[in-house]
Structure formats: C-alpha cells, structure tokens
Amino acid sequence: MNLFNNQYRTESTRMQNWDYSWNGSYFITICTKDRQCYFGDVKNGEMQLNDIGEFADQYWAEIPNHFPFVYLDKFVVMPNHIHGIIVIDKPYHDGMIHDDNGIGGYDNITRIDDGVVDDGVVDDGVVDDGVVDD
Fold first, then answer.
1. CB neighbour burial string for 2-25, b if at least 16 within 10 angstroms, e if fewer
2. Which of 27, 70, 106, 126 allows an S-S link to 102, with CB 3.0 to 4.6 Å?
3. pLDDT value of residue 121
4. DSSP letter string, the chain
C-alpha cells in the first residue's frame, strides 16, 4: 500500500550525489513550524530576541562543544527562522569520515528545550520538519 498515494510527498532539495557529512562549508536555514515568529521581533530595523530566540542563539554557539570538527561562521536569528554557515572539518581516520555533521544535534536540542519554555507559545515543537534535513 502506498501511504497517501504520494499526495503529500515533496522532492528533496539536497544534491543527489553529495554526502552532506563531507567536509565543507554549508549554508543552513531552519524555519519554525508554520513559520510562527517564535524567536522575537524586528524593531527599528534590529532583531530583538525573546527567550526562545536567546535559546536558539545559545545552542547554535554551543555546536562546536559537541562536535569539535565543526566551526561556525556567520549566523543570524530572525523572527521565524535562523540562517547560519557551518564548516565541517573532520580528520580522516583510515580514509573514513564519520556521518554526524552537527545539524541534527542542533535540531534535537531545540526540540528538547521546547518544553522548557512553558508559556503556551511552544506546545508541539518549534522546528518545521519539512525544512530541516538531518
């Protein structure tokens, strides 16, 4: 049986012949669920982070603590999404590179702390599963 008859299937935006665990620089965009403005507001042309936006900023900065082969470049938190550049620079071990690139870890951290902010705004997740490739 073909679930939903491919009615809700979207094509992957990933390059088919590229392994995203390979060393390189990657531009990352992570959008909030339903594009809700969970991270703060832009006022007078400047982003004003709320508590959830501060979490997003903090957790991004902590990625290299969990993945020492990941370096962070430019990063910005917007009201309903984040943009950032990460650089993966894994050492080779017997010609093999490990798969984990740190982005799935960031996504998982933001999911875990959804429940920390218990103000009724974030009930069932902040990250839009259709946007994050982990």
1. eeeeeeeeeeeeeeeeeeeeeeee
2. 70
3. 40
4. --GGGGTT-----S-TT--TTSSEEEEEEEEBGGG---SEEEETTEEEE-HHHHHHHHHHHHHHHH-TTEEEEEEEE-SSEEEEEEEE-PPPBTTB--S--SHHHHHHHHHHGGGGS-SSS-SS-SB-TTT---
Confidence (pLDDT) at 110: 47
Does the pLDDT of residue 108 top 60, yes or no? no
Q: What is the pLDDT of residues 55-68, one digit of tens each?
A: 999 999 999 999 99
The three-point CA angle 99-72-56 to 5° equals: 95
